[in-house]
Design a protein that fits this description.
mainly alpha; 393 residues; 4-stranded mixed beta sheet
């Protein structure tokens, strides 16, 4: 699955499920990781924790109880799909109307209505299929599964309260998060259509596209049969290429790991907590060590040996080097604690701090992957608009 989104509480995606685990490419400076609220990558992207990741991307510490409303980076390419102001305005207007006039609406009906609004916009923007599924099986509030071609929504994750059933049970920050989550995950549908169109323009066959992405064949064929009003411009094509590289192509190593080993990332996040039990992280740290030696370090050698890396590849190398450095430090700290009956308190503290540093290096690299940056940027725009329209005078 390909998931596009990290929440530092939200989760990343696998190559078929995109969770919003979901923009460095636009020049956003990240804050000091030690000021970053800990959380799971998978929860980072899939769940209600997107707010923290958005703040991480926007370079400012979150304020408790504050709806996210921050200036989004400027993107030069022609807006496509849900990035278009008209689509965002329609969606936000519907969300505001429901919030202000339908306090008794069930959370599932709220999500369903907003997704139907998005579906209309998707169709108008040339997306041949847009599907979703409500339920409680997803591990977060929302993810996009590109193999199933569905936005998976778990309304039970819309609130920290286990008794929340209807719209009025949500706080304003919670409903803002839901509004952003649904739009973020839906944006990944846009992104895949753009990737498919780019590959088709390169004369790739539907079978070749399926082999490299595992996106549903009927979706690929439908995109191939659709006549689009506007040809893709150079910036859109470059954007699609960068997304393909980190989702399905030459540089998918980080996303693949996070998608297939989300439990390890969650274990790392848990270890970083002040009162964590180090022994509980043993298996997860072994998973990281295996990936570091078998995948990450060979990748670093490959990137370092490149004679003419692109700016994106240079930035990726820097972030992956940071992950390698922090995982090495964590391994050193762990050797003083792992298997020790009564480790020194100072050594345990060192392990927790090293785990936090590693978690933050991974989160920083994840949220700055092309597709996630784009999805978080679009999400931030609708959250800002929703916040402005629901603010008390």
């Amino acid at each position: 699955m390909r998931s596009h989104r990290i929440d530092a509480p939200r989760t990343p995606r696998d190559s078929s499920t995109r969770q919003r685990p979901e923009s460095a490419r636009h020049g956003i400076a990240a804050p000091d990781p030690r000021h970053h609220t800990p959380g799971s990558i998978i929860e980072l992207q899939r769940g209600a924790g997107n707010r923290v990741v958005g703040q991480f991307l926007l370079g400012r510490k979150p304020v408790a109880g504050e709806p996210v409303a921050a200036a989004a980076p400027v993107v030069q390419r022609l807006a496509y799909g849900l990035d278009k102001p008209a689509s965002q305005n329609t969606y936000v207007a519907q969300a505001v109307k429901l919030w202000q006039t339908q306090p008794g609406m069930s959370l599932s009906d709220f999500a369903e209505t907003l997704l139907k609004t998005i579906a209309v916009e998707m169709k108008a923007n040339g997306v041949p299929f847009f599907e979703w599924k409500l339920g409680s099986s997803a591990g977060a509030a929302g993810i996009f599964d590109s193999q199933a071609w569905k936005v998976m929504v778990n309304e039970s994750k819309f609130s920290s309260s286990k008794t929340a059933k209807v719209l009025k049970d949500l706080t304003l920050p919670e409903v803002t998060e839901v509004v952003g989550t649904l739009y973020h995950e839906s944006r990944h549908t846009d992104q895949d259509v753009l990737i498919i169109r780019t590959l088709l323009d390169q004369k790739k066959t539907a079978a070749q596209i399926f082999a490299s992405t595992k996106i549903r064949k009927d979706v690929i064929n439908k995109v191939a049969a659709t006549k689009y009003k506007d040809a893709l411009d150079a910036d859109q094509i470059a954007h699609a290429g960068r997304m393909f590289d980190v989702m399905y192509g030459a540089h998918k190593e980080l996303l693949d790991f996070l998608m297939h080993h989300s439990a390890a990332f969650d274990g790392l996040s848990a270890l970083a907590e002040p009162n964590s039990t180090p022994s509980a992280a043993a298996a997860h740290l072994k998973t990281f060590a295996t990936w570091q030696s078998g995948v990450l370090q060979p990748k670093l050698k490959q990137l370092t040996a490149m004679k003419s890396p692109t700016p994106v590849e240079t930035a990726l190398l820097t972030r992956l080097q940071s992950i390698d450095t922090e995982l090495t430090s964590l391994g050193t700290a762990w050797r003083k604690v792992g298997g020790v009956k009564k480790p020194a308190a100072a050594d345990v503290d060192d392990v927790r701090q090293s785990a936090a540093d590693a978690r933050d290096a991974i989160t920083d690299a994840y949220v700055k992957l092309e597709g996630e940056q784009d999805a978080f940027r679009v999400e931030a725009q609708v959250k800002t608009a929703f916040g402005q329209k629901t603010a008390k005078p």
